[in-house]
Protein 1
Amino acid sequence: MIRSMTGYAVRSRDLGHATLHLELKSVNARFLDVSFRIGDELRQCEMPLRELLGGRLQRGKVELRAHLQPNGGGALEMHANAAVLAQLAQLQQEVQRTLRDAATLSVSEVLRWPGVLADQAGNAEELLKDCLALAGAALDELVASRQREGAKLAALVGERTGRMRELLRGVAPLLPRALADYQERLAAKLREALASLDEERIRQEVGLFANRVDVAEEIGRLGAHLDEVDRVLEKGGAAGKRLDFLMQELNREANTLASKSVSGEVTGVALELKLLIEQMREQVQNIE
């Protein structure tokens, strides 16, 4: 399915001594950009959470918020993780043996170190397990919301490609008559300006110029690009970048159609095509 980059999810889990709250929200971005706003007691979960999100999402600016709320209104009873402290002390000694001028870690730096502080449950593995399970459920909800939004975006883009096809079907029969009328007007002006020029030379010049203003090729390429847009929408997946490229190509052909047009009707169609393409481009910016 086509997925939007906009979504929101929130989940909570009762851990007994505390409640774990987790919130996910995402908006559009060129690449996947994940940021965290989590308490120190959950800092050890950041890398596993980053891997979890990276495995399911490909684009978007994603923010994850998580914190532990003590049950009963009291503060969480915190204590230092002796194993992590010992490991940190050993690492500090190794660094200072090599780098004599290296500063000693302060108490605040040690307390902010991932895994140093633990709650009264004292089980970092269980907390990580609970956090990942809750994040997985929230991620399912986020992906589902992005899919629902993506379906709406795909429908909007599909409506506009359908309208563009109608315009192209309507303009195709106008081209031969419009080109013939333009050739007649151009030939008449040439005869007036160059009375001494022979008819054969006039026909050659008019024919060469007519080839330069013929827009049948642009209309054909517009149709081909619309076919590709429909194919990408039907295939689904992470299609935002591909669709954005196709919008650029459609806009290029519509600009050429407008610049080469020799008919007011064709020019009007080209301008309406450009408007529809711009509307599609705005929607495509939100597709993953």
Note: The chain has three domains: 7-75+126-143, 79-112, 148-284.
Protein 2
Amino acid sequence: MAHPLSHTSDRFSNTRRRRTVAIFAAASLAAVVSGCATLAATGLPVGSWSRNPIAWLVGLVLGTGLMLLRSPLPLARVILALALLGVAGTFLAPAQDGVHRWIDLGPLHVNVAALLLPAAVVALAFCGISSRTGLTFPAAMAALLVLQPDASQATSFLVAVIILVAVSTPSRGRVLIALAAALLLAISWTRPDPLQAVAEAEGVFRLALGISPLLAAAAGLALAAASLAPLGLRTTAGASHRTAARALTGYFVSAAICPAFAAFPVPLVGLGMSFPVGYWLGIALLCAKGSPVKNAPAAK
């Protein structure tokens, strides 16, 4: 017979999951809508800016399916493999000025890292950063992101890795892994990136500010709220969920900040379908009903 306290803990965890999803849904939709309002005001055709809300809806549908999972761990390993193969596959696609970040799927121009890395960060936390998979995957993924080059995604991913290491790795290996991640992060910003900023993607906040400071503020607040939404699970019962929540927040916050320093797309607000879907996949895997079979070890 199950202990009554376990049912109480389950109810609290489910309540936190629902609240986290609700906050993310509202904030991410507000960010997408504010971006659409900005782009529409600049005269961009409806067929261009309407892709973001469509992508948000696609992400919602896919995410709803993920959230019904009873045991995310088997899928977590599949997600890590798909993310690695997907990012590696960008090197087989035509480059843009020597940069490999996209794969064309019919009419879709997919930023593979933006699409798959949020879920991969959560999957990595579920598998355990100290496991063989947890040590091999970050090294291979970081190398690919540096080679693409994509300093924004490399930074966001490696910030998540550093958080995972700090929270869940035994102390004797923690410093070495964190230093290696920090070194790769620094190297990513030294790689030449010839791509020029596109106002609708990288410069969307400047466009919004030119239209209305209130619109720019609303977009910024919505993006911040969506980025911090995973912290709703920072005190949940499962160690893996707590770790994943912090790491995913680190990824989201870094991805939101990086465009302030270089020509990188602004997630959710800027033009780009990969971010809304990718963010939903990350939140959905984090908020899946079942707890991973294997919890990440607690920090010592």
Note: Confidence is low (pLDDT under 50) at residues 1-9, 293-300.
